[in-house]
Specification:
Strand 3, helix 4 and strand 4 form a beta-alpha-beta unit. This protein has 8 helices and 7 strands; from the N terminus they run E-H-E-H-H-E-H-E-H-E-H-E-H-E-H. Helix 1 runs parallel beside helix 2. 39% of the residues lie in helices and 18% in strands. The chain is an alpha/beta fold and 191 residues long.
Amino acid sequence: MRREGRLGVGIIGAGRVGPVIGAALGGAGHAIVGITRGSDEERAEALLPGVPVLDALEVVRRSELVVIAVPHDELPGLVAGLAELGAWQPGQLVLHTDPGYGATVLAPAAAQGAIPLAVHPAVAFTGTSMDLRQLTHAYAAVTAPAPVLPIAQALAVELGCEPVVVAEESRAAYAEALATATEFSRSIVRQ
C-alpha cells in the first residue's frame, strides 16, 4: 500500500534522463510502475531494478504521473499520438523534461483532462546514479498553468532540485541560453 500522496509513476523514455528521473522519484517514495524500452536497457535496469518494461500506451494506462523524457523532436508527435489513441486520463499528471517546450506541447493530453507540467532539471545527464547527486545541487525550470504550478514545483523539489518558474513564452529563450552556456563551458574545458 502506498503512503498518502505517493503516485504510481510511469516513464516514457529510457535514455539518459528518464531512468534517473524515475530513480529520484522512487527515492522520494513514489512507486515506479513501468518504463518504455530505450537505447540502453542495462542502464534502465541498473537505475530501476525490477521495473517492468512496457509499451508507451501501457505505461500511460498504469500511471498517475507520466514522465516523458524523449528527444525534443519526438515529444509533440508522441503526446498527440497517445491522445489519438485516447490514452490520457482525466486528472493524470503528465510531466515532460524538455527545456525547449513549456506546458502547451502537452495540449493534446490536457484536452483529455490530463494535467500538463514541464520540469527541466538543469543538469548534464550521464544516465548514471551520479546524476542523482547532481540533482540535489541543481535548479529545475518549471512551467505549468497557474492552478497546477505548485504541483510542478513540488515534483521539482522531490527530484532534489530548486524550482525556478519559467513562463511559457520564455521557454525557447531559456533553452537557447542553456545551450549557449553549455557550449561555452565545453569550449573552456577543451581549451
